[in-house]
Design a protein that fits this description.
By secondary structure, the protein is mainly α. The protein is about 55% helix and about 5% strand. Helix 3 crosses helix 5. The longest helix has about 55 residues. It starts with 10 loop residues before the first helix and ends with a helix.
Length: about 375
């Protein structure tokens, strides 16, 4: 009968279809757990996934079977979450929060996590296509406008930080190391023997999350390109040597910026002191990451090429540092314009001088005739 109706399928095909049907019947929560467990994620990224799932995604969508999850389900969830995070931002502002976090970052992160998990389901043939199709859901423009510190501002901020953190600022501003990379530094990562050839070796990064009752474990750098040796300007070397003598942990494995009880310095400690310092300078919206932005901007102004900027920043893709290259190009274009203009400016000055002398002689002749 099945053959007559054209419905017969080989046993192996039927078994596969039945297996896929059972798998597609699992809930989003069950699949999300499996998907995240099998992803190769850095500790901080894994923590972000788990937090987004627990707080923003699964409470509403977790019990829905993968096969039943529709585009409308995702769109409705996204709309409600957008309203929720906006309301949370308004509450923070009403309580005196002065930052510009309007909740869009939370919304973007949650949608990105959901989209990643559903795409993973498509790759495993649990879905024919992802129902995460919210228009511009994966497009995010940061509100924060990066700040480039002046030398005066950099030193002012340095002086306002506690003694044990002061060396962090000139090191970050001149090398472009990330916050986690700075906190992961050990004594052996600083090569300061020759102040003219000093380097900092980036070999790890400290996470910002708590995991398995251990704080800020040091993991591998963000990317393969993040493993790098960055030159340190000679003026920073004595600052670092004094810091190592007074505050760093003992031995070659001693942390350069240790916590008070030893071990890795928690990100919240740096952030808390940073907020106090920046408010006194009148830069309430200055992020710690702006130290890295300042370093790359000044490197571009000094004439660093695209390849050199990528090496300093530890970026694998030129797109990310092209912005700084444009800054350097603009600076050089202005310098070229000034050099070109010098010849014309000198000639203009000479013409004006000649005219002034001629006018002076004419005035003298006029006075002589009146006598």
């Amino acid at each position: 009968m099945l053959i007559d109706r054209g419905e017969w399928r080989p046993p192996k095909v039927r078994e596969r279809e039945e297996r896929l049907a059972r798998q597609r019947a699992i809930t989003l929560a069950e699949w999300a757990e499996r998907s995240v467990a099998n992803k190769k994620l850095r500790p901080s990224t894994r923590n972000r996934y788990e937090r987004a799932l627990a707080q923003r995604i699964l409470p509403e969508l977790g019990d829905i079977a993968l096969n039943d999850l529709s585009r409308l389900d995702v769109a409705n969830w996204y709309t409600r979450l957008a309203a929720t995070v906006s309301a949370e931002a308004n509450v923070r502002k009403a309580n005196g929060y002065k930052g510009n976090n309007d909740g869009r970052g939370v919304l973007f992160s949650a949608y990105q996590v959901l989209s990643s998990i559903l795409n993973d389901a498509v790759d495993h043939e649990l879905l024919d296509g992802s129902p995460a199709k919210v228009k511009r859901g994966l497009q995010y423009e940061a509100i924060h406008e990066p700040v480039v510190l002046t030398p005066d501002q950099m030193w002012h901020l340095t002086e306002l930080l506690p003694d044990y953190l002061q060396a962090l600022v000139p090191l970050a501003v001149t090398t472009g190391l990330r916050n986690g990379e700075l906190r992961a530094l050990r004594r052996r990562h600083l090569v300061l023997t020759d102040s003219g050839r000093a380097v900092v070796k980036v070999r790890g990064t400290a996470a910002n999350n708590k995991q398995a009752r251990r704080y800020n474990e040091i993991g591998p750098p963000k990317t393969k390109m993040s493993v790098r040796d960055v030159p340190i300007p000679s003026f920073v070397v004595p600052i670092l040597k004094e810091h190592l003598e007074k505050y760093a942990g003992p031995g070659s494995d001693g942390m350069v910026f240790p916590a008070k009880r030893g071990g890795v310095l928690h990100a919240s400690v740096v952030e808390r002191n940073w907020k106090l310092a920046r408010s006194k300078v009148g830069l309430d919206d200055l992020h710690i990451h702006d130290l890295r932005h300042t370093a790359l901007t000044w490197a571009a102004r000094a004439g660093a090429t695209l390849k050199e900027l990528m090496a300093i920043a530890g970026h694998a893709h030129p797109t990310i540092v092209l912005h700084y290259q444009h800054i350097g190009d603009e600076e050089r274009r202005h310098a070229i314009a000034e050099k070109v203009g010098t010849a014309f400016q000198d000639e203009l000055a000479a013409r004006r001088a000649r005219k002034a002398r001629e006018d002076a002689r004419a005035d003298a002749g006029e006075v002589g005739r009146h006598r």
